[in-house]
Amino acid sequence: MSMRYNPPPNWPQPPAGWTPPAGWRPDPAWGPAPPGWQLWLPASGPAVRPSLSPIPHPALRSTNAGTALVAVAAGSCGFAGFVPPLWAATQRPLDVAFRRRMRALAGGLAALMITGLMLTAGNTEEDGTPTGFLGDLGGVLLFINLAVSITVAVLVRNAGVGAELPGVAEELARRRLREQYRQLATNDPSLARSMAIGRPDLPRRVDDGGLLDLNAIPADRLTPLTGLSPEEAERVAHAREQLGRFTSINELALYADLPESTASLLGERAVFI
Question: Less packed terminus of the chain by CB within 10 Å, N or C?
């Protein structure tokens, strides 16, 4: 009985009539097929997608810890204001940029508190009231630290909510992969080309997080690999032919006349080598 290829919905759709050649393997960047998916179906059978087992979504992380951190920031008069951003950083272990911002914010709040305490330490009256210009400045800094600490605690109290939803950790890891391979392509384009970075149309053994080299992918593969409509893919190919190569997603969107929403989605995976 003859069989036909049945690509999963999260894989690029091949051209009509395409059949995987002998020894063909899916690109690791496409991710795994959904559980229970059949890659081959009888050629004479109806084009029915097999039903997939629903993936249970875990309950959202409780916000009790985040609420307690607001109380800590307020109850300590801002002296523990650096704690909420440090806690928020631990809630997203794979989001490097977020963790870096939170640690920098914690350091800034700690420095603000220490500076305020040092200015007020030797410039207070017997009842503890700041006196003189330096004392007043220290009091203002401590008040600013208190206000900012509470604000930050309120903003980051739900940093962990949704972090355990199915696919979130994996997508954050793939986003990090894309950034690392983009950096490689910038620093060493020749190496990136030899590794077929951004080329899911070529055989390769590297997972670059799903990058798409829009300067190199053949015109007839733009639609199945990028999700662009045939008209959009044609405009991209024509603009690329005229310019020679693109240097950024903004340049591509401008010359190929792509909608902002399309350019934004494409920019998540685009690389220009």
Answer: N
**220-267 tens-digit pLDDT:** 999 989 989 999 999 999 999 999 999 999 999 999 999 988 998 899
What is d(CA 210, CA 192) in angstroms, rounded to the nearest whole number? 14
pLDDT of residue 261: 87
φ/ψ (deg, to 5) at 4: -125, 150
Assign 133 to helix, strand or coil: helix
Instruction: Determine the Cα–Cα distance for residues 252 and 245; give it in Å rounded to an integer.
Output: 9
Dist CA 84 CA 82 (whole Å): 6
Give the CA radius of gyration of the chain. Answer: 27
According to DSSP, the residues that pair with 124 across neighbouring strands are: 130
Gap between the terminal Cα atoms of the chain: 44
Q: Angle between the 249-256 and 260-267 helix axes, to the nearest 10 degrees? A: 150
pTM: 0.47
How many C-beta neighbours within 10 Å does residue 232 have?
19
Sign (positive/negative) of CA torsion 209, 213, 214, 217?
A: negative
User: How far is residue 178 from each of residues 7, 11, 128, 172, 195, measured CA to CA in Å?
Assistant: 24, 18, 55, 10, 14
- Asked if 153 and 78 count as a contact pair (C-beta separation under 8 A), the reply is no
For the ranges 57-66, 99-108, 142-151, 162-171, the lowest mean pLDDT is seen at 57-66
Q: CA–CA separation, 112 vs 152, rounded Å?
A: 14
What's the pLDDT score for residue 212?
95
User: Pairing relation of β-strands 40-42 and 3-5?
Assistant: antiparallel
pLDDT at 47 over 90: no
The stretch 152-178 carries a mean pLDDT of: 74
Confidence bin at 62 (pLDDT 50/70/90): very low
